[in-house]
């Protein structure tokens, strides 16, 4: 059985068994028919479990909710009776809650101790002075100058946290174990996983910042620590249009800044600024009010302001194009590391590509910064009451002002282009995560088939997925140099669009090479090497006849045939090269795509079930739900909820107790169904057939989608039986052994036998397989 399926269905098993036991306690002897129908339902559950169904937990929860709803009168009576029995039950509940809290605290302390022990013994604590954490009550103002004037201002809350190393080695190397992955308190905090590159939250803030600066070729000697000013998570929710990273060196001088910009499409861009392009002339003694008139530049002293200018290459607002430039004037919040009253005052000016000022945005402090360590309980309550709503209103405010600009000011709307290689795309969906695994395996297969010495660097664009270096297993000779190719996925939308194409070369052409830069979802470093990777010879090999055929039953082939017939062209790009007055229809036949044939072959059959379901859902969404997979999922959930109700009703009615159905349901509907067999007659075949069909309807619907094959299911069941037989074999021998050592040796021998059985069975089905502890 699949470990993922077992892990996700553990809760379902507990829910089902507990429901059966509780219902039996309620009904006593009248629950015979209910238990019989529940046993039939459980058989369908086991069949789905063996087939690797990953929606068992959801369906079990749906069934449990229906049971509670339909038996709500009995549930309320049971709870009321237990509550009135006395204080003993209440005391037991309180003890259970305290035990859960103690377990959580114990695991937290154990984890913290483990992280502290992971520091090298030669490392010492980082003890130098650094800025303290602060809460900044602020206000933000936006003034649009061109092409039409528009302005607004709102209160805004910012927090500042120092990003410092945990320890320093004898050689002066700053290190961190990731203990700073969360900064702040439980109700007001920030998390490292929300900043800089996607994922890698275990590195902590300092570890992620160090990795990012290293990727930008910033040496460790050029900086020492940082101070992050951002919008906090308020009770778990946060929306950050822009975050400011102040980078200080060992002399507490502000040397660099990072502006981390997020748009409403969940895309991100980090701008690393070093102040090398100031928007104004350098300060001189004369400009500072000196009376000697020498006009010499002021020497090195703590910077009070940081200025820089850079090119815009990230889509933020639909009323501004991706062209133009930014200018920043930022106040140094800590000109001295021991500043008691730091202030935030940052101004960003957006200019068009022709140099016209378009927008001026400013964020500045409106009150003295608050020290969270001295705020106290009453101060915390007063602060929460005053500011809890500000973070929640950030996105609605953006929508409100956008509505004013569109309906009242009639500004031109610029559609969102795809991100460039310098930016970070949105988070992937569950479907795109599945397709990424398939595409990665497909690339490995293509590189293995190439006749050249090939080295492919694949950047998946998925959080917490490392860069893959895929190479051929051939000897490198001077006359056959290695061909290096890099493929970078700019946005996870590439995976959803890839499955629409019948040929991989066509997908890469339209998504990367021959398309507008604003439509690119893929980036290549050397497109001229693609013919070596996607040659026609390999395409001919990648057919059903050229691969080792995987036998499938008739129903499975029908599912694949449905996928093939549903295949359609991908959604039109935002910036289409085809004029709107022309309509281009693809009159080619719809064969299995090259990716389909790879998955249908022996090499990719481990992905076959998940791949087919995901791709079918994408095609259904494109044809019937305007491209929204959520619409298909909503319809699927609705069907499962209704089938869950149909399955629960006969199980409950079989015991003879009535059901309180909603009064608004039609009389000719579910309330009119007579599930219970009359007491004066025996259970007939027709009643048994009808009840069994209804009870198994939810399972049948899910199994029609297709998971593992029936042959694999039977092999799993036989493997389970063999293991049980092996474990039960020799128990009598254990009883005969007189010493503990003999019993231990006997158990080890049985464990080895079980391992050999598992390896033999898996080798027979999956090919060579090696056990891993």
UniProtKB/TrEMBL annotation:
Ranges that cross the membrane: 5-25, 31-47, 91-108
Sorted UniProt keywords: Membrane, Transmembrane, Transmembrane helix
InterPro entries found in the cross-reference section: DUF1365
UniProt region (Disordered), positions on chain: 272-302
Name assigned to this protein: Uncharacterized protein
Species lineage: Eukaryota, Fungi, Dikarya, Ascomycota, Pezizomycotina
């Amino acid at each position: 059985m699949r470990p993922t399926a077992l892990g996700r269905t553990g809760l379902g098993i507990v829910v089902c068994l507990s429901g059966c036991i509780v219902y039996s306690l309620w009904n006593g002897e009248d629950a015979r028919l209910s238990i019989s129908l529940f046993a039939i339902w459980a058989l369908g559950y086991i069949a789905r479990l063996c087939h690797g169904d990953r929606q068992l937990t959801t369906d079990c929860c749906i069934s449990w909710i229906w049971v509670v709803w339909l038996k709500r009168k009995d549930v309320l009576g049971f709870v009321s009776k237990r509550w009135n029995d006395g204080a003993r039950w209440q005391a037991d509940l309180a003890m259970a809650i305290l035990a859960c809290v103690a377990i959580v605290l114990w695991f937290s302390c154990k984890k913290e101790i483990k992280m502290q022990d992971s520091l090298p013994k030669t490392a010492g604590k980082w003890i130098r002075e650094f800025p303290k954490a602060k809460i900044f009550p602020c206000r933000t103002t936006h003034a649009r100058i061109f092409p039409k004037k528009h302005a607004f201002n709102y209160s805004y809350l910012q927090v500042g946290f120092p990003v410092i190393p945990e320890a320093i080695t004898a050689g002066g190397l700053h290190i961190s174990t990731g203990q700073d992955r969360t900064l702040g308190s439980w109700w007001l905090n920030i998390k490292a996983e929300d900043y800089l590159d996607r994922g890698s939250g275990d590195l902590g803030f300092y570890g992620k910042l160090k990795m990012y600066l290293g990727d930008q070729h910033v040496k460790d000697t050029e900086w020492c620590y940082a101070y992050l000013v951002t919008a906090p998570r308020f009770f778990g929710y946060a929306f950050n249009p822009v975050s400011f990273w102040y980078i200080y060196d060992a002399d507490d001088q502000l040397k660099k800044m990072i502006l981390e910009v997020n748009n409403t499409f969940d895309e991100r861009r980090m701008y690393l600024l070093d102040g090398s392009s100031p928007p104004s002339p350098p300060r001189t003694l004369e400009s500072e009010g000196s009376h000697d008139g020498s006009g010499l530049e002021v020497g090195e002293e703590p910077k009070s302001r940081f200025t820089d200018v850079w090119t815009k290459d990230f889509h933020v607002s639909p009323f501004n194009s991706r062209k133009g430039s930014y200018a920043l004037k930022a106040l140094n919040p800590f000109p001295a590391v021991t500043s008691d009253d730091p202030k935030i005052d940052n101004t960003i000016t957006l200019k068009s590509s022709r140099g016209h000022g378009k927008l001026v945005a400013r964020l500045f402090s409106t009150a003295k910064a608050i020290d969270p360590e001295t705020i106290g309980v009453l101060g915390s309550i007063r602060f929460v009451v005053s500011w809890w709503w500000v973070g929640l209103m950030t996105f609605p405010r953006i929508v409100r002002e956008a509505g004013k600009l569109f309906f009242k000011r009639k500004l031109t709307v610029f559609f969102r282009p795809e991100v460039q290689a310098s930016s970070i795309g949105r988070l992937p969906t569950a479907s795109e995560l599945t397709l990424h695994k398939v595409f990665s395996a497909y690339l490995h297969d293509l590189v293995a088939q190439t006749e050249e010495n090939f080295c492919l660097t694949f950047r998946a664009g998925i959080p917490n997925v490392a860069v893959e270096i895929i190479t051929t297993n051939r000897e490198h000779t001077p006359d056959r140099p290695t061909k290096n190719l890099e493929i970078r996925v700019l946005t996870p939308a590439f995976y959803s669009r890839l499955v629409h194409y019948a040929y991989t070369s066509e997908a890469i052409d339209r998504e990367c090479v021959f398309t507008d830069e604003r439509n690119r979802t893929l980036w290549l470093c050397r497109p001229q090497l693609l013919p070596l990777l996607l040659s026609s010879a390999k395409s001919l090999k990648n057919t059903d006849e050229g691969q080792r055929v995987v036998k499938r039953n008739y129903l499975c082939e029908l599912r694949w045939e449905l996928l093939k017939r549903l295949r359609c062209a991908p959604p039109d790009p935002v910036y289409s090269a085809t004029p709107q007055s022309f309509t281009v229809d693809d009159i080619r036949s719809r064969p299995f795509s090259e990716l389909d044939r790879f998955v249908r072959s022996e090499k990719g059959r481990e992905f076959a079930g998940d791949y087919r379901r995901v791709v079918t859902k994408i095609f259904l969404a494109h044809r019937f739900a305007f491209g929204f997979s959520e619409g298909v999922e909503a319809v699927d959930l609705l069907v499962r909820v209704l089938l869950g109700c149909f399955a629960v009703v006969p199980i409950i009615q079989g015991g003879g107790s009535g059901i309180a159905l909603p009064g608004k349901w039609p009389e000719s509907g579910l309330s009119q169904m007579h599930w219970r067999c009359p007491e004066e007659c025996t259970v007939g075949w027709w009643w048994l057939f009808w009840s069994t069909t209804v009870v198994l309807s939810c399972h049948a619907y899910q199994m029609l989608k297709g998971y593992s094959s029936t042959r694999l299911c039977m092999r799993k069941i036989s493997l389970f039986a063999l293991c049980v037989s092996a474990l039960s074999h020799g128990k009598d021998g254990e009883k005969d052994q007189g010493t503990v050592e003999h019993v231990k040796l006997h158990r080890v021998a049985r464990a080895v036998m079980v391992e050999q059985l598992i390896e033999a069975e898996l080798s027979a089905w999956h090919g060579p397989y090696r056990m891993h502890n």
